[in-house]
Amino acid sequence: MSVAKKNNAILLTGAEVTRFAWPGGYPVFYVTHDSGVLCPKCVSENFDQCCDPDDHGWFVIGHDANWKNPHLYCDHCNSRIESAYAEEETSCPRSTTAKKW
Length: 101
Ligand SMILES: [Zn+2]
Prior knowledge:
Elements: H1 3-11, E1 12-13, E2 16-17, E3 20-21, E4 26-32, E5 37-38, H2 40-45, H3 47-50, E6 60-65
Antiparallel strand pairs: 1-2, 3-4, 4-5, 4-6
């Protein structure tokens, strides 16, 4: 009934924050109410905030598998969120323009 309950359903698979989509093991990222991106680790470590509908910077409204965005970063810890299919292009993950051929 409440938004928080729905949010909990999004966040939880069993007792743990989903790190990889099931089935298939694809890397998962979370989307907050203000359109931010969070990695599963930050969601896990800030779980109460992610369940708080008044905390728009944290409140998680959805998640998805990162299929092929090699430059997807967590807005909180800036760690790169793995992609399912684009890993070969990311030998230099911080550089989005320079490619050495
Ligand atoms: Zn993070």
